[in-house]
């Protein structure tokens, strides 16, 4: 049981709302003819991929020497030596296999034939998702150490998540879903940016170059405001009036960010609020 608790810590459950949010928006945008089975396996695949990415991130940061004990956040189990590198590699491999199995099941449920162009595109996207999860911090050319994190999160948590979910439910593309995917991508990038502002000094020390280290803390805070309020405006312009609740919440978040204290506590709060916002927007799409 103690070991299982350590694994749960490394799963970084507080990041999972971001995976769920994109699937909720993409599904609710379909409005009618929603398949519950497709929704469940879509959600499961996204969560498994997110956990794979989190585990790989922890291992990559340890191997790069980046994940030292920091005053502004707790250490993870691998960093403290409570989980071995071998155990972590086994966990990563297990979750990658589970992701592949869940993803293929999802495609078989949604597509009549996965061996056509559409099926092959989704198989390719699934493969890229796994590679992106692993290469974020693993390896000598880890893109998370060279300004690539923001773009990757925008693509996989926003564009691919929402549009892919919508297509698997409807077999159609939609400009409305596309705009929703942009908003979701910006919101998810804001969580990564918050993480990078929190780890700013340590990242510079270990040469982990992010958009935050490129901009500096003050400009990274402005960048955070642009991400959050641009996403909110996009949602409002697309008729999702429930998103107006985000304006005071994001304003408060930016004020806290400017003070630069207790940033680690902002991580779960921001992730959970994005999930709450996606639930509100989904309810509005489905019932109003």
| Number of beta-strand segments | 0
Beta-strand proportion: under 5%
Distance between the termini: 45 Å
The main pleated sheet reads as:
none
Following the backbone from N to C, one meets helices and strands in this order, namely HHHHHHHHHHHH
Residue stretches low in confidence (pLDDT < 50, at least 5 long) are: none
Q: Radius of gyration, Cα only, in angstroms? A: 19 Å
Structural class: mainly alpha
Tally of contiguous helical segments: 12
How much helix, percentage-wise, in residues? over 70%
Average pLDDT works out at 91
What overall form do the CA principal axes indicate? globular
Commentary on this structure:
This protein is mainly α. The chain contains twelve helices and no strands. The longest helix has 29 residues, at 36-64.
Summarize this, please?
The chain is mostly helical. It has helices spanning 2-11, 16-30, 36-64, 85-110, 117-135, 149-170, 175-198, 200-205, 211-215, 217-237, 246-259, 263-287. The protein is globular, with a radius of gyration of 19 Å.
Mind sketching the topology for me?
Elements: H1 2-11, H2 16-30, H3 36-64, H4 85-110, H5 117-135, H6 149-170, H7 175-198, H8 200-205, H9 211-215, H10 217-237, H11 246-259, H12 263-287
Helix pairs in contact: 2-3, 2-6, 2-7, 2-12, 3-4, 3-5, 3-6, 4-5, 5-6, 6-7, 7-10, 7-12, 10-11, 11-12
